[in-house]
Amino acid sequence: MSLSEHRYALAVHWTGNLGEGTTSYRGYSRDHDVIIPGLPVLQGSADPTFHGDRERYNPEQLLLAALAQCHLLSYLHVAVKHGVVVTAYRDEASGLMRLNRDGSGQFERVTLRPRVTVADAGHVELAARLHHEANQVCFIARSVNFPVEHEPETVLA
């Protein structure tokens, strides 16, 4: 495998057969496990709106989490590259998904609201501008077909 290729694998096991499989829409659970060797099992389900378990992660939450995590990691990378010392980072992300009449749906947009703390007052403006560059290098943001918007806040430590 070349250094420019990275492959990922996991297993998803449906655990929601309540005894009769999918004989009816409400007759089965949406529960499943996401299994990645060497990591804790991630317990998933559908969004509660779609008969899922609110105590488990749903795919929509995980997509939002993947975008927020990717932006964080990309932002830290570009901060180092530009000599900006980040001492804290917190994001309050949200996403809008719309359902269609045919039962399908899609995300229309995601908004990330990172609050970044920097060590040097002279880097506050640069730190705010780096979110654009981070978005350009974020693998996940580059892979989705909806806008990933940013409402950053930069503060001095």
Structure in words:
With 157 residues, the chain is of the alpha/beta class. Helix content is 24%, strand content 27%. The chain has helices spanning 59-81, 124-137, and strands at 11-14, 32-35, 42-44, 86-91, 94-99, 105-112, 114-118, 148-150, 153-156. The strands form three sheets. A three-stranded antiparallel sheet has the order 1-2-3, with no helix packed on it. It has a three-stranded mixed sheet with strand order 4-7-9, with helices on one face. A hairpin with a 5-residue loop joins strand 5 (94-99) and strand 6 (105-112). Helix 1 (59-81) packs across helix 2. The longest helix has 23 residues, at 59-81. The radius of gyration is 19 Å and the shape is elongated. The mean pLDDT is 96.
Protein topology:
Blueprint: E1 11-14, E2 32-35, E3 42-44, H1 59-81, E4 86-91, E5 94-99, E6 105-112, E7 114-118, H2 124-137, E8 148-150, E9 153-156
